[in-house]
Amino acid sequence: MEKPAITDYTISPAIAKRWSPRTFASTPVATEHLSSLFEAARWSASCFNDQPWVFIVGTKANPETYSQILDCLVPFNVSWAKSAPVLMMAIARTTFNHNNKPNESAEYDLGQAVATLSVQATSLGLYLHQMAGFDAAKVITTFNLPENMKPMAAIALGYMGELDTLPEELRAKELEPRSRNPISSFVFDKPLS
Q1: Which CATH number fits the domain 14-158, given the four candidates 3.40.109.10, 3.30.1320.10, 3.40.50.1820, 3.40.50.2300?
Q2: Which of 8, 16, 34, 71 is deepest in the core (most CB within 10 A)?
């Protein structure tokens, strides 16, 4: 199933095609494809080129880490994410490497890395669904994260699955048309007040 964006202006096909399904096929994601995703993230922009992102990756071939990530998700997300062949935690390192001072851009930079990763995933025929529904304290404890590591998102990744694997209410949600706010609602050429 594809749900391309209906755009007002031309955008890259990989951006138009990207969306966040909740159904995943059991097909494993090849190691070279995973490496390609992280190579894309590696080349994302960041403040001072600090690259303050960390990804913890679990695959069904690496069931211990996969189960640990799944166990950190809220029950609703577990209900559908458990079918994805890859689960990840995206973590921001909140201090700079060069001076250990707070990096106020770390979360923004991690977001850029995940956005770049998501476009690369789409270009490889993969889909991902980012989630805020997870227990951050549990992630910190489970993965023994230091104080300067902040879990920001859980990510389910894989190939598109079949709609009939989802509960009825989620199936209906998957079929809803995509929508976005108009550009005029967030781009301004004068002060906001």
Answers
A1: 3.40.109.10
A2: 34
